[in-house]
């Protein structure tokens, strides 16, 4: 990890010269900042970069700060082009997961009225479920089934779910109504279990928020 800090594009003040800004400029917090993605997969796609190089030893505050900055970026983009409404985030940690840089960073994008892949499939499925079941909320029922089987952990209003239909091994789901302190606490807990207890040093996270 220490070796990878040498000549890191994101460390210290290097990012000011080695990364581009979005069309509306760069957003910065004390613990994170934005950097325009060189290889965009959508019109609005950027990086949220932590000021902590070491992904495996982030604090809860550092995790929360990245997600708060992501929400600010979504709002900024939406204020410019309100037809882009579907916020998503991807976090590939360490090269084995597909990360191009060791330094901690999220990929965030705001899609045009539709999410990508499995997330959009779940959203459409939830709508159909409500139509076929007198308006019942798919996600509430999903949580209820897993609670009945003892497969959830509650942190405030957030649920950590060891769910029944994972796509990959060691898959964990977090459901919450909004990004706030309990969500960051749950995410930090999962990371610490992966790194400290399971010795899993590479992982991927995918997340979507409700439409703007």
UniProtKB/TrEMBL annotation:
PANTHER family noted in UniProt: EGF-LIKE DOMAIN-CONTAINING PROTEIN, PTHR34714:SF3
Protein name in the entry: Uncharacterized protein
Naturally occurring in which organism (per UniProt): Rotaria magnacalcarata
Organismal lineage: Eukaryota, Metazoa, Spiralia, Gnathifera, Rotifera
InterPro entries membership: HIT-like_sf
């Amino acid at each position: 990890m220490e070796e990878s800090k040498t000549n890191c594009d994101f460390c210290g003040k290097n990012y000011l010269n080695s990364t581009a800004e979005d069309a509306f400029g760069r957003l910065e917090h004390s613990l994170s900042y934005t950097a325009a993605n060189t290889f965009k997969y959508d019109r609005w796609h950027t990086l949220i970069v932590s000021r902590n190089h070491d992904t495996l030893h982030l604090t809860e505050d550092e995790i929360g700060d990245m997600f708060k900055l992501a929400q600010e970026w979504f709002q900024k983009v939406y204020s410019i082009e309100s037809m882009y409404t579907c916020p998503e985030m991807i976090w590939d940690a360490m090269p084995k997961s597909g990360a191009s840089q060791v330094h901690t960073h999220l990929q965030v994008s705001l899609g045009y009225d539709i999410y990508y892949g499995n997330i959009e499939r779940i959203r459409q499925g939830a709508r159909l479920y409500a139509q076929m079941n007198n308006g019942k909320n798919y996600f509430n029922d999903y949580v209820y089934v897993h609670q009945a089987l003892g497969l959830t952990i509650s942190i405030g209003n957030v649920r950590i779910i060891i769910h029944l239909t994972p796509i990959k091994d060691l898959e964990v789901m977090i459901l919450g109504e909004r990004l706030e302190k309990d969500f960051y606490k749950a995410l930090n807990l999962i990371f610490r279990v992966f790194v400290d207890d399971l010795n899993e040093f590479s992982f991927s996270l995918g997340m979507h928020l409700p439409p703007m």
